[in-house]
Write a structure and sequence with these properties.
With about 140 residues, the protein is of the alpha/beta class. It has six helices and four strands, in the order αβαβαβααβα.
């Protein structure tokens, strides 16, 4: 599993991530469809929908980068279709913006979209969740 190898890179041992969508003000998916095929999919869906209620105290923001249209993109406030390689480069640029990884050369495929996402992540430090899809390489999982 790519996510276990990514956890090995990030934490020194293979750990299974457990996401807390119920605590996230901003959620970013990097070609991840966490609502299907995951052991915790039902809980993740319930937690995400709870924070997406317009009647709630606050409503979380959902950004989806996807290589194939899916349910997450349909639910997202902001959806960007990119190739898997471009999503990987995007992940490195996000990490570099926060000093967590070296910058990768190359143009940003959607500079305005990216700058809006960076501003939202910066405004909600400590309450953001970044989820990498199983098809992303281990370094992207480590970044997430």
């Amino acid at each position: 599993h790519q996510r276990l190898r990514g956890a090995q890179l990030a934490f020194g041992r293979p750990l299974e991530p457990v996401f807390h969508f119920d605590r996230a003000r901003v959620v970013v998916t990097l070609d991840a469809d966490f609502l299907q095929g995951q052991p915790e999919s039902v809980r993740y869906a319930r937690d995400l929908i709870t924070l997406r209620d317009p009647e709630a105290r606050f409503m979380s923001r959902l950004y989806a980068l996807e290589s194939t249209p899916g349910l997450i993109g349909a639910l997202a406030d902001h959806r960007l279709a990119l190739s898997p390689a471009d999503i990987e480069h995007f992940a490195y640029r996000l990490a570099a913006a926060f000093g967590a990884a070296p910058a990768m050369a190359g143009p940003a495929p959607a500079p305005r979209w990216e700058s809006a996402l960076l501003a939202d992540l910066s405004a909600h430090t400590g309450s953001c969740l970044v989820v990498a899809g199983e098809g992303m390489p281990p370094p992207v999982h480590a970044i997430a």
